[in-house]
Amino acid sequence: ASHISSSFLGPKGVINDWRKFKLESEDRDSSSLSKKEILRQMSSPHRCHSKGDKDTRERFCRKMSVQEYELIHDEQEDERCLQKYRKRCMQDMHQRLSFGPKYGYLCELQNGEEFLEAVEKERKTTTVIVHIYEDGIKGCDALNNSLTCLAAEYATVKFCKIKASNTGAGDRFSNEVLPTLLVYKGGELLSNFISISEQFNEEFFAVDVESFLNEYGLLPEKELPALGNGNTDEPDVE
């Protein structure tokens, strides 16, 4: 989907998501006293003094002091949990709004209907690059190999290929114009490169196709590998 559902952004959705995140983040012994029970005991100190046995009374009071210590630090734990939650939400929103969906592979389109769907049903910010090819045509195999490599490096770009005979408009794509590369965004044709292999040497590779597309500003900035191991315990940079 190209939109964020209202259940994600709505107040109830945010509250429920936060509660779920907090419960999943808590790692407490199931046998420990609940907060309400601890607070009730703390508000009734006479229970401690009502014990006749001195050792029992001391053990009970020591337990109370430990529980009280945990309660004092509970707010700090909540704050740390909230920071993790905020960081995760920011990462989710960054993924949804900035980068959009990820692909990472060269998709084979089987017919004209899939071709139209790939071009017209993508979000307006997604670049769709379609290679029209046929088996046995010079340059088509090399271009498919190059696009396979580029698809892995530019995961936010949707790379597709389709045989001219499967487009339903094979008469428009004679062998003389293959390989053809079509570039779309928001359902609109940005560039149309016919016989594109003529732009390269007899042998060409992904770096050659990458440089050619970059000359026309058709590729986004290459994504850098994520640093670190995704540890969310590091403090946020405000």
Automatic annotation (TrEMBL):
Location of the Phosducin domain: 6-230
Q: Name one GO cellular component term.
A: photoreceptor outer segment
Xref: Gene3D superfamilies: Glutaredoxin, Phosducin, domain 2
Pfam families, alphabetized: Phosducin
Can you cite a GO biological process for this protein? visual perception
Which spans does this entry mark as compositional bias, Basic and acidic residues? Answer: 24-39
Q: Which UniProt keywords apply?
A: Cell projection, Cilium, Cytoplasm, Nucleus, Phosphoprotein, Sensory transduction, Vision
- The principal localisation class reads other
Alphabetized InterPro entries for the sequence: Phosducin, Phosducin-like_reg, Phosducin_N_dom_sf, Phosducin_thioredoxin-like_dom, Thioredoxin-like_sf
Return the annotated region ranges for Disordered. 24-53
The cellular location(s) given in this protein's UniProt record come to: Cell projection, Cilium, Photoreceptor outer segment; Cytoplasm, Cytosol; Nucleus; Photoreceptor inner segment
- Tell me its family: Belongs to the phosducin family.
Q: What is this protein called?
A: Phosducin
What species is given as this protein's source? Psilopogon haemacephalus
